[in-house]
Amino acid sequence: MKTKYDVIVIGGGASGMMASIFSARNGHDTLVLDHNEKLGKKLYITGKGKCNITNNSSIENHLSNIITNSKFMYSALNTFSPQDTMQFFEDNGLSLRTERGNRVFPTSDKSSDVIKTLEKAMQRSGVIVSLNNEIERVDKRGDVFYILCTNKIEYTCSSLIVATGGVSYSGTGASSLGYEIARKFSHNVIEPKSALCPIVVKEDVSELNGLALRNVNMKIEKDGKVLTNEQGELLFTYTSLTGPLPLTASSRINKIDLSGAKIIIDFKPALTEQKLEEKFIREFKDYAKKDFKNYLHTLLPESMIDYFMKKLNIKNKKVADLTKQERNKLISTLKRFDFSIESLDNINISIVTSGGVDIKEINNKTCESKLVDNLYFVGEVLDVDALTGGFNLQIAWSTGYVAGNSIKG
Ligand SMILES: Cc1cc2nc3c(=O)[nH]c(=O)nc-3n(C[C@H](O)[C@H](O)[C@H](O)COP(=O)(O)OP(=O)(O)OC[C@H]3O[C@@H](n4cnc5c(N)ncnc54)[C@H](O)[C@@H]3O)c2cc1C
Fold it and tell me: Which atom of ligand 1 is nearest to the CA of 168?
């Protein structure tokens, strides 16, 4: 196998595969190096195995779902838009469908079909792939990059695209190599942090493990300030809160000190405290002879009742025997059920990594380094991250496309 290429892409994930296709289509002799035994291992597990490849919505909507450095993505998204992504996959034979929230999936619901489509497009464009390659060292001498692998093969190229992704989900091949390459070439790397991850709480929530709450409101507050406030669904694990609301919130709060921060759940967001009071005054008459604990079944999921009763600290009694003070306590507990935040969960189980190569040193039109000629960074290795809905993969496609199309010479 030859070792001299015009372009080498390190990382055969979403962004690397896309970059390689367009580099090769532009006539550059292109090699993809990956240490995994196959391409796209993270892609395989995306969207619960269905791969939510993009969001069929406006660029403005994508920008508003990018939490970190959305402005950086303006140019790349305008050059290769979500609709261009869909067109690309359809042109390459992958049938797509759009679901709730404009989330785009392969019609087959198989992420493996997304990978196969990219692999075929790579083959057709003439991209060479070398797998099981652990990289030992990356250097640049004169205009040439040297990539030494642990098997002692040294590859050379005139342009290098770093597409090594973030550090989450190490089982998919994620590593910090991209950050090490960036630092080696004097780039600043913003400290990687968990994003789109569960939020660990101080309270023992093990008895709630598996419980899902729908149509609740979840706020995060610290020092009397509301940091996030959204309505939707959440789920309990043994130690944390997860699901759509906590995942989104985690990306919004990962850059602040969380000591003293609280999660506040409103179980009845559609009813004001006054409406709840009116409802209870009415219903406490109707249910006067019922046990209070049984009455709670009309308000909360079964598996929440014991935990709620402990927090409420009211002994079980007949509904008729509840005092006004206890009724008020019920209202305030339903509207502001709080948990103290311990931390965000481990970065390894974060859906994305926040942080990475500082975008201030990257040309947003080409993804080329402003410090080193012909060095490019694409995808999640950059300090850009978004919410769920196909927005993170769109970052990978768009940055991969612009780098692949910006190779000089
Ligand atoms: C469980 C889960 C579900 C997700 N679902 C979605 C979704 O449905 N929609 C969405 O938009 N986003 C989703 N994401 C996020 C999305 O997968 C990533 O943002 C995207 O894959 C990033 O693409 P990338 O090319 O930058 O990195 P990756 O796809 O992670 O690719 C990086 C590549 O670099 C290689 N590499 C790393 N280190 C080295 C090394 N030292 N030597 C050689 N090669 C190396 C890796 O093996 C890998 O092949 C999900 C993430 C997870 C973890």
Answer: 53
Is the domain of 372 the same as that of 311? no
pLDDT in tens, 25-37: 999 999 999 999 9
For residue 409, tell me if it sits in a domain.
no
Q: How does pLDDT run across 108-123, given as a tens digit for each residue? A: 999 999 999 999 999 9
Atom in ligand 1 nearest the alpha carbon of residue 178: 38
Task: Verify whether ligand 1 is closer than 6 Å to residue 397 (CB atom).
Answer: no
Beta-ladder partners of 175: none
d(CA 165, ligand 1 centre) in Å: 5
Task: Return the residue whose CA atom lies nearest to atom 44 of ligand 1.
Answer: 34
Co-location of 25 and 168 in the same domain: yes
Residue 385 CB–ligand 1 contact under 6 Å: no
Selection from 163, 138, 151, 150 nearest residue 30 by Cα: 163
For 269, which DSSP code? Answer: T
In a domain, 232, yes or no: yes
| 333 and 240 in a common domain | yes
Q: Give the pair of three-digit tokens for residue 242.
A: 């997860």
For ligand 1, pick from 54, 164, 383 the residue to mutate: most ligand atoms within 8 Å of CB.
164
**Distance in Å, CA 286 to ligand 1 centroid:** 56
CA–CA gap between residue 308 and residue 254 (Å, rounded): 28
**Residue 89 belongs to domain with CATH number:** 3.50.50.60
pTM confidence score: 0.96
Ranges of the chain with pLDDT below 70? none
List pLDDT tens digits, range 210-253: 999 999 999 999 999 999 999 999 999 999 999 999 999 999 99
Full domain range(s) for residue 237:
198-345
Question: What is the C-alpha separation between 105 and 14, in angstroms, rounded?
Answer: 15
Task: Give me ligand 1 centre to Cα 166, in Å.
Answer: 7
Assess contact for 120 and 92: CB atoms under 8 A: yes
Only one residue has tokens 């190599």, namely 177
Residues in the chain: 409
- Domain match, 309 and 356 both: no
Best mutation site among 392, 394, 395, 397 for ligand 1 pocket (most ligand atoms within 8 Å of CB): 392
Q: Do 152 and 234 share a domain, yes or no?
A: no
